[in-house]
Amino acid sequence: xxxxxxxxxxxxxxxxxxxxxxxxxxxxxxxxxxxxxxxxxxxxxxxxxxxxxxxxxxxxxxxxxxxxxxxxxxxxxxxxxxxxxxxxxxxxxxxxxxxxxxxxxxxxxxxxxxxxxxxxxxxxxxxxxxxxxxxxxxxxxxxxxxxxxxxxxxxxxxxxxxxxxxxxxxxxxxxxxxxxxxxxxxxxxxxxxxxxxxxxxxxxxxxxxxxxxxxxxxxxxxxxxxxxxxxxxxxxxxxxxxxxxxxxxxxxxxxxxxxxxxxxxxxxxxxxxxxxxxxxxxxxxxxxxxxxxxxxxxxxxxxxxxxxxxxxxxxxxxxxxxxxxxxxxxxxxxxxxxxxxxxxxxxxxxxxxxxxxxxxxxxxxxxxxxxxxxxxxxxxxxxxxxxxxxxxxxxxxxxxxxxxxxxxxxxxxxxxxxxxxxxxxxxxxxxxxxxxxxxxxxxxxxxxxxxxxxxxxxxxxxxxxxxxxxxxxxxxxxxxxxxxxxxxxxxxxxxxxxxxxxxxxxxxxxxxxxxxxxxxxxxxxxxxxxxxxxxxxxxxxxxxxxxxxxxxxxxxxxxxxxxxxxxxxxxxxxxxxxxxxxxxxxxxxxxxxxxxxxxxxxxxxxxxxxxxxxxxxxxxxxxxxxxxxxxxxxxxxxxxxxxxxxxxxxxxxxxxxxxxxxxxxxxxxxxxxxxxxxxxxxxxxxxx
Length: 688
Ligand code: ADP
Ligand code: MG
Description:
- By secondary structure, the chain is α/β, with parallel strands linked by helices.
- Among the domains are: 5-38 and 160-211, no CATH class; 43-141, CATH 2.40.50.140; 454-611, 3-Layer(aba) Sandwich (Rossmann fold).
- It contains 24 helices and 21 strands.
- Helix 16 (524-535) links the parallel strand 18 and strand 19.
- The longest helix is centred in the first third of the chain and has 25 residues, at 216-240.
- Mean pLDDT is 87; it is low at 633-638.
- Magnesium ion is lined by residues 299-300, 394, 424, 551.
- The site of adenosine-5'-diphosphate has 18 residues, from helix 9.
- Its EC number is 5.6.2.4.
- Residues 280-444 form the Helicase ATP-binding domain.
């Protein structure tokens, strides 16, 4: 069959361009452009059950009509409001355009059915320009089926998309291949049946199953999509492991020396993860390991011990962190740990220029520096390693996969460096499998002993004075505190301004305290100097933006104030709170918010009050915000699912992963075709 999109009736140049925006190039691509929901005209919804944003069918009686003409924004046009009641609630229909006879149609006392999207208007629920049908009260509903709602783009109507899909379904391509072995299908649906049912559900189909995406036809397709995604992740892993990696024996002297100098012993969890890493390093192919551990679980030591093996064998280790502040903290830490043991530590950051930069790069290229620490500046072309054997990436979820892959190119000729990825935001298991399916996972599941609990309170902005008094009293007793200013996420400039204002205000009001300021727009030496002062207990109070979110470790700080806490996501708040509770003093976290809170705002703050377990909080975050938000926009493209919704469909994941692994080995061609079908734009890796 000729699969060109132009063979469809009604598709010209213009429409073809709109379709291309949805990655629809061929007629058969429409088959896999799957509905994100359905219009349900099969049920009359009582008005009190309506929710804004929902499209629904109502049946109600006209109470009155209204004609707000010239004073409206739509002056020049006449508009009509029709007030309805169904006995249990009221709603208003709004029409901006009138046609002759329209007013007569809506006579008081007449019964009608309206289908449309519900909105919250100034005076209550509204529908604009709904589909209307006049009926006699209680008339039977006509047989009706669910109508697909497609993801679309501006200028392309649902009706047009439905019309196009309908054409393709009618002359269903004969070469549509079953790619999954029939034995693995969770449901006895052929691909063809499943697609037809999902696009155009039969009129007797199970409506509630379809609306909740639990219909067998949907499950059949969701499963296939999951298998394709898992196959793509696994093939990336096979590809990465094609190259040889240096075999690294366990450290005999460096690691014991490092441990001997520490004031504490590694926890059992740290030891276990350390052993898992040690085993990986002794393989002749690259380690690909993700270490998850809650804030403060001691990932830095695990990374340092891993580095010992590689350094002792005479190779280099690169450690990359997403922010300069975090990278600097690591640099200071690792310098303190390793330089007394004879290992030179180099520093590389974007802002570094001139001689300092040249000297750093030289020490890296000659191999003089064993450990190289920095931000993504580590990737730059000018940075050449003498013999890089391991890459450690801290706070992975802030980097894209491409960046993770890029560092791999910096290894020794013909070899791939080992990769150790650490994340501080625990990631729900489903997300781990879907995004890091190519990595092995270790979990540091216990915090070091002796941590004090953190008491968390939520306080409205009106009580800010009390909070200031409390900070003042606590700091006067020698405690240290953070005061975090957030205005708008993603706007470092505005945040910096807020922090500067707060710094000025509190400095003048609390003259007896030594107060510091740190934000992302400061020079790195300035930032570093302030952080050092705070760490050395020369400052009582540190006013900061969210730049201190990750990695900052000052055990004496026991009070954390977060302004506008309602603007931040759960995981981010958890990270910030994790800056306290690291020492022996009982710690407090004050979440200051501006009322009124949204429903999710209330839920977020109460989740934090009730739990300090990062995994519990991450699950809740996933539920409230979805995977895109948690992983950051960089990685959402990676997810790019058509039908799958991870929270809903996670029960299919383990099986999908198994099937993907089997297919990669036993049916590589079918597996390739499957990936092309569901992930046509994802990078492809050579098969093994
Ligand atoms: P994170 O996992 O958040 O990166 P860090 O590595 O920064 O945590 O460790 C948090 C704090 O715990 C640091 O002050 C570190 O020195 C300390 N720490 C790490 N391991 C232990 C341990 N086994 N016993 C006691 N303290 C530890
Ligand atoms: Mg850390």
